[in-house]
Write a structure and sequence with these properties.
4-stranded mixed sheet; Jelly Rolls; alpha+beta; binds 2-oxoglutaric acid; 6-stranded antiparallel sheet; about 325 residues
């Protein structure tokens, strides 16, 4: 069957592709995992490394158990089913995603030690550093919250661009669950890299009104309100578009994905367009994304420290437009 199953996949309820040619399987690179040089060549070529089964399965199960038990306490998991199945409880509350990563040693173990770090040491060829901030995604069933197409550089480009995302599914994720999709060869699109790829989601056009708005929020030590944000008129979501269907029609390439299993790892570069499809199962889709680079290179300060600025008021920077 394989990727043919993607034919049934949707994006906000609309068919994501019309024929099998609109989709492809991610190329596995687990066979070259022992060669840093081969991994670097493959990254250059594909823009990603798909490494099925690289992570320690037992550790990944523990991380899944911990996240699901937190979600269960928030009322998001149907307790009529075995907890590890992660069946969604309709109407149940879903959590603040960053909070799920805090004080969570079993998740930290999977993301920041063992096979993950060994891989990066070999791939990057030196001492590895990671962001202190860890992203966590909880996607309930339905058509309302697929990931919008974007490059990661727009959110984390204030340090080295020799930075990589680890997307880690914390459970088996069949095609119909809406796992991550990469837009084939989008890392080679020069117009995209030089245009959208040069933007920074936390920059705004520094006219007088904008300056005042940001200054007041800074003084009051709070984030911008939605109406203040709207007045600053920048691309506040950072997404390339809100629609994965039109994005592929415009940029070309196939949506590449996989029948992900717990223990798999997908690594990609900052200039890889990615998105997800709708979760058409009755289970919660959980995954994390974390970032790695050489320790010797500059880090984006938005994601470093015990209380990282993230996209809050401390991260905002005015620019001349
Ligand atoms: O898990 C997702 O759907 C989104 C992940 C993502 O945007 C990323 O890894 O950069």
């Amino acid at each position: 069957m394989g990727v043919e199953k993607m034919l049934d996949s949707t994006y906000r309820g609309n068919r994501l592709g019309q024929s099998i040619d609109d989709f492809g399987e991610l190329r596995p690179s687990i066979d070259i995992v022992d060669s840093g040089e081969a991994l670097r060549e493959r990254m250059e070529e594909d823009g990603y490394l798909y490494l099925p089964g690289l992570l320690d399965k037992g550790e990944a199960v523990e991380a899944r158990r911990e996240i699901l038990s937190r979600l269960s306490r928030m009322g998001a998991v149907d307790t009529d089913y075995p907890p590890l199945e992660g069946v969604h409880k309709p109407g149940g509350k879903s959590g603040g995603h960053y909070d799920l990563t805090r004080n969570n040693p079993s998740l930290m173990q999977v993301l920041y030690s063992g096979p993950m770090i060994q891989f990066y040491q070999s791939f990057l060829g030196g001492l590895v550093a990671h962001f202190d901030y860890t992203w966590f995604r909880v996607k309930p069933p339905g058509v309302s919250s697929p990931t919008t197409p974007h490059y990661d550089i727009v959110y984390m480009g204030r340090g080295t661009t020799n930075l990589y995302t680890s997307w880690t599914p914390l459970g088996d994720m069949p095609y119909e669950m809406g796992g991550l999709m990469l837009l084939e060869n989008s890392h080679r699109n020069a117009d995209l890299r030089n245009g959208y790829g040069q933007t920074d989601v936390d920059k705004y056009c520094n006219d007088q009104e904008a300056e005042q708005i940001v200054e007041v929020a800074r003084k009051e030590n709070r984030d911008l309100t939605p109406s203040e944000r709207a007045k600053l008129q920048w691309n506040s979501s950072g997404a390339y578009s809100s629609d994965a269907i039109s994005t592929r029609a415009e940029l070309g390439g196939r949506w590449l994905t996989a029948d992900y299993k717990l223990g798999d790892l997908l690594v990609f570069c900052m200039y890889m367009m990615h998105a997800s499809s709708d979760n058409l199962t009755n289970r919660i889709r959980i995954s994390s994304d974390s970032r790695y680079q050489l320790a010797s290179e500059a880090q984006d300060p938005r994601w470093i420290g015990t209380d990282p600025p993230a996209h809050g008021i401390r991260a905002k920077e005015g620019m001349v437009c």
